[in-house]
TrEMBL record:
It comes from the Eukaryota. The chain crosses the membrane at residues 127-145, 165-190, 196-220, 227-246. Residues 100-242 form the Yip1 domain. Keywords: Membrane, Transmembrane, Transmembrane helix. The keyword Membrane applies. It is found in: Golgi apparatus membrane; Membrane. It is a multi-pass membrane protein. One of its GO terms (biological process) is vesicle fusion with Golgi apparatus. This is Protein YIP. Belongs to the YIP1 family. GO terms for cellular component: COPII-coated ER to Golgi transport vesicle; endoplasmic reticulum membrane; Golgi membrane; trans-Golgi network. Its main location: Golgi.
Amino acid sequence: MSFYNAGIADSQSAFFQPSSQFQVPQGSMSFTQQPATGQAFSQDPLPTGLLNALSTKGYPHELPLLQEIGINFGHIVTKTKSVLQPFQRADSLPLEAITDCDLAGPVIFCLLFGTLLLAAGKVHFGYIYGVALFGTISLHTLLRLMGDSAATNSNEETKRQSEQLFLRTASILGYSFLPLCLLSFIGVFVPLNNVLGYALALTSVCWCTWSSSGFFTAALHLHNTRVLIAYPLSIFYSVFALMAIFA
């Protein structure tokens, strides 16, 4: 019985013993290599403590939080100053600021416009968001047809460019919304349903149209089409001017 068990053990050891020509593969399944990211995390751990938990500090090699979510305060200030200076050419601005798809400024201006209307006794938040969404989609479709130069690209590339153009359209329309915020601010103290209010509303609409058309011609590299773009933009901003005038 012992001789039989010894024979089985010898046969199993001979079966599992690797040959001299066998080599262990050194591929992705090998456990001898450690990823560089794991070493970086182990060498630079996150700081501990209550204040560090509430802060936005991360690993040293990570990007800042605002940069990861796409908020650039420099571009926000540049676009806002450009809208407040209507006689400044949009071509003189940095191309990165013009083509930026930032939506932080537009959201702030829309909330400010609705809040000022609310202070004047006009609750139009739903109309503001609805008209803004419908107008952005319509103008995006129009501008995509006017500046469609991606017909020879692949479907994925065309889809990506279309998404960027939609966000860029919403960003430009939102930043050029600032004169209407000034109009609604005046409406808190002075009734706008008179000749003076109509003149101020017309000035604000022309101001918004001029700024946004300049941004679009510079961002889409369109030439001699500013008047053509200005027509639908004036209609878009006129709807918000009517909200500020009438209760």
